[in-house]
Design a protein that fits this description.
This protein has about 300 residues and is mainly α. It is built from 12 helices and no strands. The chain has one domain: Na+/H+ antiporter like fold. Belongs to the auxin efflux carrier (TC 2.A.69) family.
Length: about 300
Amino acid sequence: MTGPVVLALLPVVLLIALGMGLRRCGFLDERFWPQAERLAYFVLLPCLFFHGLATAQLDALPVFDLALTLVVATVAVAACVVALRPLMRIDGPAFTSVFQGSVRFNNYVGVTLAAGLFGAKGIALAAICNAAIVPTVNILCVVVFARYGSARLDGRGITRQILTNPLVVSSVAGIAFRFTGLGLPPGLEPALRTLGAASLPLGLLCIGAALEFGAARLWTGPIAVASLYKFAAMPFATMLSALALGLSGPALTVALVFQVLPTASSAYIMARQLGGDASLMAGIIAVQTLLALAAIPLVLSGIARVVTL
C-alpha cells in the first residue's frame, strides 16, 4: 500500500511546490490566483463531480455504506471538537478555525490521490465521498460559525450557504442524472470530462500559491490540536465506522484518504467571510498541507496492516 500511495502523492507534491514557486517568483500576476481558484472551485471541480457521478457504475459501488461511514465519523469527530472546546482556552473566532481544521478536507488532493490509486473507479468513489461529506462538513461549519464566529448567521444565511455550495449542487445533480438512466450527449460528455480533468492540476497549483507559513509560529497550540483531530481522530473514527458497516477494499481506502486530507484553502475564504480567525486558518492550512505528506501514507499503511491481521 505504501508504494502506490507515495507514487500517487508525488504529482500532488510537485504541483503544490510548483504553485508555491510560481507565486513566490512573481511569474504570474498576483490577480491571477484568486481568479484561478474561483474558476476551479465554481466551474472545473463541479464538472468533475457531475461527470464522475453521472457516468459512474454505481451499482457496483457500496454507495450507502461508504456515505454512511464518512458521515458518522465526521459528525462524531465534530461533536468531540465542540465538547472539548472549553479546554482550548481560545476565543470564538479562533475556535471556528480549529473546527474547520479538524473536519474540512481538500477536495483536489483527495480526487487526485483516488484517481492515482484506482483510476476511473477512484474518481467515482471520490465523487461519492464528496457527495456525502461536502454537505455534512458545510452544515457543521456554518452552524459553528453561526454560534462562535464574529459575523452571526441566521437560519436563512445558513441555508443559503449550504444550498448554493457548487460542490453540493454538482454532486446531487450528478447522482440525480445517473438515476434517470439517460446518457450524457456525445458532445457534452467529453467537454465535461476535459473541464473536470483541468480542475486537478489547477487546484493543486492554487493550493501551493495560497500557502502562508508566517502565521503558524503564532498559533502552535491550536494548530497542533486541529492537526491531531484531522490526522489521528478522524481516520480512527472512520476506521471504526467502516468496520461496523463492513466497508472494505478500494472504498475503504478512498474513505480513509479523504478523512486524512489536509484542510482546504477555501477554509481561509470562509473564515474571512463568516467571522473566523483568518490568520490562524492560514497557519493551519499551511502546516497540515506539509504534515499530510507524511500522515497519508502512514495512516494507510498502518490500516493495511491492521486489516490483514
